[in-house]
Amino acid sequence: MEEIEISSWPTLDAIKKSAKLIEKVGNLQTGHLMSVFCRIEEDFLELCYSDTAANYLRRFEDKEEFETALEQRKEEEGEAPYEENHDFEENFEEENKTDDHNFEDK
Question: Which of 39, 80, 87, 103 stands 20 to 30 A from 65 (CA)?
Answer without folding.
Answer: 80
